[in-house]
Give the backbone structure.
Amino acid sequence: ELKVEQNPLFLSMQEGKNYTIYCNYSTTSDRLYWYRQDPGKSLESLFVLLSNGAVKQEGRLMASLDTKARLSTLHITAAVHDLSATYFCAVDDYTGTASKLTFGTGTRLQVTL
Amino acid sequence: GAVVSQHPSRVICKSGTSVKIECRSLDFQATTMFWYRQFPKQSLMLMATSNEGSKATYEQGVEKDKFLINHASLTLSTLTVTSAHPEDSSFYICSAAPGVIGGYSYNEQFFGPGTRLTVL
């Protein structure tokens, strides 16, 4: 059974600081997704990582994937209050014919002034 | 592009009644649709996967007779919560995957806005 763990579960950081959220998973997969969820809302897609060594950046967020280490990171640079949300990674347990996402535990990010 | 809608966005019902939630892909055909449940402050848990025209595949621990899924067309899937009870109160989110288009496999899932179910 695929297990996906994120840490930290909760992160309070000051505006302007940098931090990294980690996503570890237990089986081989080269497809990983990052999502953002605001309170009471559904998921917003942030990044799609489809190969080992993939790195993608959008604004203050950068995601990377190391399939050998079964690790993805979401790096936040110079945080701003608008980034406060819960962030989920999700690993695609793709069998070649079917796709199934297993979500991480989520990291609740609170950016304070 | 890749917009998924859900209806209703919020529903309150009495215990023992059935509730139907619709999930539609608005600008693409979805060979596969997924239903997730999310309890407060928890992650998303996959309930079932449905392919158009065939029976849904349920995850372990999800009652098939309680959560009826119908994927009648390439743009519509429905989840019916039968004889709902307060413990079924949750945020239900669907997603849709386009499948293969032009020989390329699109496995990314596009998520609907969610339906908040409250059972009194």
In short: The first strand of chain A starts at residue 4 and ends at 7. Chain A touches chain B through 22 residues (CB under 8 Å).
